[in-house]
Design brief:
By secondary structure, the chain is mainly alpha-helical. The chain is built from four helices and no strands.
Amino acid sequence: MSALWTIVLLIISNGFMTYAWYGHLQQSDNAPLAKWGIVGAIVLSWGIAFFEYVFQVPANKIGFEGNGGPFNLFQLKIIQEVISLSVFTFFALVVFRTERLQWNYIAAMVCLTLAVFFVFKK
């Protein structure tokens, strides 16, 4: 059950992370924070990133084998990277709607997904 909780919390965390990193790029020139420029984007991103950590830290605590979880550090990191890429892809295609999946992006995702296979290989 801790593996499932770890993955769910990582997905939520990465949703906040992706929005904190890229959400400000969607701000129009008429948005209230637009007049703050880069400072506004940084303040907004830090505020959103707080919630990333609210979910990321418990995910790692629950999932780490040193705390009774099922994953070692390498496994946690590789899982997190694949989740991050998946959440980003959803964000780019559904939220931004400015990007298309190209064959080389898909090939890169397959390679990262293979990393999950290899990190769990004994």
